[in-house]
C-alpha cells in the first residue's frame, strides 16, 4: 500500500508537470517581454533549486517519497535553507510554465501540483521524523519550501 501510494504520487507529479508543458496556450494575459523575462528567471531559479537539491541528497536521493533506509539526514547546503528544495524548484518552475501558458487550465494544474507536492512532503516528513531523531529539531529551524516559512512548531 505504501509503495503504491508513493508510485501514484510520483506519477501524478510528472503528469501534472507534463500538462503544464503541453496544455495549449491561453489568452488570460499577453506574453510581453516582461512576462517572458519573469518566466525565464523563475524557470532558472526553479531548475537551480531542484538540481542543488538532487546533488545535495547524494546517496539519499530517491524519486519516491519513502526515504532510503540507512540514508543520512542532509541538512547542509540548500537543505540548510529549505527542507524540500527539489519540490520548491518544481513549483517555481511550474509558475514559469503558468506565465508562458497564460490559461486558467495552467493555473488549475499548477495549484494541483502544489497540493500534490505539499501532501507528498508532509507524508515524507512523517517518515523522516520517525527515522531520524534530529529531523523534528531541523524542521523547527528550516522552512519547508521557502526559508523561514513552514517550520515545525517547537514543542513546549
How would you describe the overall organization of this protein?
The protein is mostly helical. The chain has a domain at 27-61 and 72-141. It is built from five helices and no strands. α3 runs antiparallel to α4 (104-131). The mean pLDDT is 96.
SSE run: HHHHH
Radius of gyration: 17 Å
Count of distinct strands: 0
Strand content of the residues, in percent? Answer: under 5%
Number of helices: 5
Mean pLDDT reading? 96
Which regions contain 5 or more consecutive residues with pLDDT less than 50?
none
Query: Alpha-carbon distance between the termini?
Result: 35 Å
Query: Which secondary-structure class do the elements indicate?
Result: mainly alpha
Proportion of helical residues? 55-70%
Could you describe the largest sheet, including whether it forms a barrel?
Answer: none
Overall body shape: globular
Key features of this structure:
mainly alpha
List strands and helices in order, with pairings.
Elements: H1 2-22, H2 33-57, H3 85-101, H4 104-131, H5 135-141
Task: Report a brief summary of the structure.
By secondary structure, the chain is mainly alpha-helical. It has helices at 2-22, 33-57, 85-101, 104-131, 135-141. The radius of gyration is 17 Å and the shape is globular.
